[in-house]
Specification:
79% of the residues lie in helices and 0% in strands. The chain has eleven helices and no strands. The chain has helices at residues 2-60, 62-70, 74-78, 87-108, 110-117, 129-165, 169-198, 223-239, 242-246, 249-269, 271-275.
Length: 276
C-alpha cells in the first residue's frame, strides 16, 4: 500500500512538474512573441516616420518644379547637363559631401574618434568629443559655403542676384516659408536635445535622455535633416533661373539634399545599436 501510494505521489508530482514546465515554456514563448511584436512595431513605426520625412521633403520640392516649368526649363533643371559632367561640378559635390563623410566616420567609429579628440590637434577644438564634433561642424559649414561660392564664381553670383530680383511674389513667399519652417525644425532640434544629442553624444560617452516634445512630436523621424532639405529647396526656388541651371546649381542642390537622405538612412540603420 505504501509502495503504491509512493508511486501515485511520484506520478502526481511528475504531472505537476510537467504542467509547470509547460506553463513556463508557454510564458517564455508569449514573452518572446511579445518582444518580437514590439520590435516589429517599432521598426514599422520608424519606417512610417522615414516615409513621412521623404513625403514631406519631396512635396516641398513641388514649388521648385512648378517654377522650373514656368521658366520652360524643367528638364534642364533636373536632368544631367554638360555642367554636371564637368570636373568643377564633381569636385564641388565631393567637397560638400566631405562633411557628411565625417559624420559617417564618427557614427561608425566613435571609439577611434573619441581617442583622436584627446590628442592634438583635435584637442584644441574642444574639451570633449562632442565639443570637437560641434567645432568641426562649424568649420565644415564654412567650408561648404566657400566651396559653393567658388564653384559658381563671379558670373554665377551675378546670375544669382539677377534671379533673386526677377522672381514673382509667390516665389518670395514660398521660399521664405520653406526656409522658416526648415530652420525652425533645425534650431528646435538643438533646443530639445542640445549638442550632445545632435552630435552623437550617446556614442561618445554622454547620456542623452529621450525627448518626446517638439520637434519629435510632429511625426518626423529626422526633423533636423528634413528642416535642412526644406531650407535647400527654399534657397533653390529663390535663385532658380536658366543661367543658374546652366551652371549646374540646381543639380548640385538636389545632390546636396540626397546627402541628407543618405545620412538619415545611415542613422536609422543603426537604431538597434542605439537601443543596445
Amino acid at each position: 500500500v505504501a509502495w503504491r501510494g509512493g508511486q501515485r505521489a511520484r506520478r502526481s508530482g511528475s504531472k505537476a512538474e510537467g504542467r509547470r514546465e509547460c506553463s513556463y515554456e508557454s510564458a517564455r514563448a508569449r514573452s518572446h512573441s511579445q518582444a518580437k511584436c514590439r520590435c516589429s512595431k517599432s521598426k514599422h513605426q520608424q519606417a512610417c516616420s522615414m516615409g513621412q520625412d521623404l513625403t514631406l521633403t519631396w512635396l516641398a520640392l513641388l514649388p521648385v518644379l512648378w517654377r522650373a516649368g514656368q521658366l520652360g526649363m524643367l528638364s534642364t533643371s533636373l536632368a544631367p547637363t554638360p555642367a554636371v559632367a564637368s570636373l568643377e561640378w564633381v569636385l564641388a559635390t565631393l567637397s560638400i559631401a566631405a562633411l557628411y563623410m565625417l559624420h559617417a566616420f564618427i557614427w561608425n567609429f566613435p571609439g577611434p574618434f573619441s581617442r583622436a579628440c584627446s590628442a592634438l590637434p583635435l584637442k584644441l577644438l574642444g574639451r570633449s568629443a562632442v565639443d570637437v564634433f560641434a567645432s568641426l561642424e562649424i568649420i565644415g559649414k564654412v567650408w561648404q559655403a566657400s566651396v559653393l561660392l567658388l564653384f559658381i564664381g563671379a558670373e554665377g553670383r551675378s546670375a544669382v542676384a539677377v534671379a533673386v530680383l526677377d522672381q514673382p511674389v509667390w516665389v518670395y513667399a514660398t521660399s521664405i516659408a520653406l526656409i522658416a519652417a526648415g530652420q525652425t525644425l533645425n534650431f528646435a532640434m538643438y533646443k530639445a536635445i542640445g549638442n550632445a544629442g545632435v552630435y552623437y553624444g550617446f556614442l561618445l560617452g554622454f547620456t542623452v535622455p529621450w525627448c518626446y516634445g517638439f520637434p519629435f512630436n510632429v511625426g518626423l523621424r529626422h526633423p533636423q535633416y528634413v528642416g535642412v532639405v526644406l531650407s535647400i529647396w527654399g534657397g533653390l526656388l529663390l535663385v532658380l533661373s536658366e543661367e543658374t541651371a546652366d551652371l549646374g546649381l540646381s543639380q548640385l542642390c538636389i545632390a546636396w539634399a540626397l546627402m541628407y537622405v543618405a545620412m538619415s538612412a545611415m542613422e536609422q540603420s543603426g537604431d538597434q545599436k542605439v537601443s543596445d
